[in-house]
Amino acid sequence: MTNFRTKKAREKLLHSFGKLKSESFDMEQIESYFRKKDHSGAFQVLSDKTCNDLDFQELYLFVDRTNSKIGQQFLYNRLRTIPSHSNEITGFETLIEKFANEPDFRVNIQSELARLNDREAFYITSLFQEEHLKPPKWFFIVRLLAFTSLLSLVMMIFNPSLIFIFLGVFVINMGVHYWNKKNLFEYLASLPQLLKLSKVAKELFKNDALKEINPNLQQSTDILDQVRNRMSFFNLEVKLQSDMQVFFWGVLEIFKIAFLIEPLLLFGVLKRLENKRKEIETIFEFVGHIDTLISIASFRHGLEKYCIPEISKKQKHLIAEEAYHPLIPECVKNSITVDGKSILLTGSNMSGKTSFIRTIGINAITAMTLNTCFADRFSLPRLKVFSAIRISDDLMNDKSYYFEEVLTIKEMVDNSFSSISNLFLLDEIFKGTNTVERISAGKAVLSALTKENNLVFVSTHDIELADLLKDEYELYHFSEKVDHKTVAFDYTLKDGKLKNRNAIRILQINDYPESIIAEAIALAKQLDKTAMNLQSEHVAEPAGIR
């Protein structure tokens, strides 16, 4: 039966390679390692705002093909943290290829990792990221009670009346024992899983191909072995409860109460683990790194096309050939070359502007975190990613849409003056205010953002803004075809600014009253004259940020 189950498990692993997971995701626990990790050495940590703009959670769910809860947590942190050195991922391409091309080797590793797929494995991070329980000041009494109980039991051989002392102490110990149960409960998940993690890591480390991830791992596992026997007690506790071995559990419980085994062992183990946080995290990262590399191999295998990115030293330079958004089914692929100038996109709603901006952002992130891009070719410099795409009112903090947008873009302006290259992604800049001020402020800000070594991808409905920025930005557009009764989008990037206006025409084909259409056309002509005057004023006295 065991061999049959093992064979079925291996077949399942082979079949699932390259496919999306069908299981549910506990995002709160998956994110917990990232939220508490020290990222002081990272090149950039993606903000919650940028993650929301780029549909990061959906991207993570698409990429995640890990086999363990450890792998899920490590992958999430990897995807949100742009490392200081690109070789943190690029240095393991040979191993990723080995996972992709050698199914037996991969499945053997996956089978080991799957041992850490119980939900309780999420809590291992608490052992090196959170404060451990400290014994109360009166804890010396626990040791005294345990010693008294043992001494009275031994001396009972010579003086049977000491049984009354033993029973009296037992009653007191019972209160201490059950007081400690709530403390024990906090660690009944993490401590047994830590033992399992250590065992899995040792097994994986036997493979020479995996040793390159951390050649010094054995130092950490040897140090952790110093408390292995003490931790094994908590593994026994879980096993006995889960197997419902009531009789043995009852005998063990009496023994634990009599000598206060649980509080003494628990606080003893926690004290020793306090000085072993670094070793626990090292083992955690070793296992998580392996699972992440398998996940990269798996999701690449399931893609129609992908490429290894080129991280260029040339600033303000980006090449995307046949790039696509991985979360859009049958996504239209587009190509663009950026060299010196930033990019301004025009086009109507739903034509593809925002999706294209997200495509660039997602590919930039996965290039620097997973060494993978959704394109035939993707080349970019090492840069930080900021966005202002999905903005809404912050009613809890009494912030209007416009004020929230101003704060978001102000962060970009502040970062634009640094020596580090940035990628700024904006959708409809300052759309929370009136036309004249939107165009004026938008022009000034966009001129400032594209200076230094920064790249900007921005979309706008304002054709006037495109005219004002044509010397600093390359102009592209998305358009739709409107016939007698339909509107068709081809989602294809085209050179130049949008020349055709179809908004009023779309009202017309949807049978709006002729009086409305006529008035709209007349007003549009009048506003065009106003926009031309604004452009003339700008030429006479250019705006800017000082």
From TrEMBL:
Q: What positions does the domain DNA mismatch repair proteins mutS family occupy?
A: 340-525
Which keywords annotate this record? ATP-binding, DNA-binding, Membrane, Nucleotide-binding, Transmembrane, Transmembrane helix
Q: Name one GO biological process term.
A: mismatch repair
Keyword Kinase annotated: no
Keyword Lyase in annotation: no
Q: Which organism is it from?
A: Aquipluma nitroreducens
Q: Where are the transmembrane segments?
A: 144-172, 246-270
Q: Would you tell me the protein name for this molecule?
A: MutS-related protein, family 1
One of the entry's Gene Ontology molecular-function terms is: ATP-dependent DNA damage sensor activity
- Name the Pfam families for this protein: MutS_V (PF00488)
| One Gene Ontology cellular component annotation held by this UniProt entry | cytosol
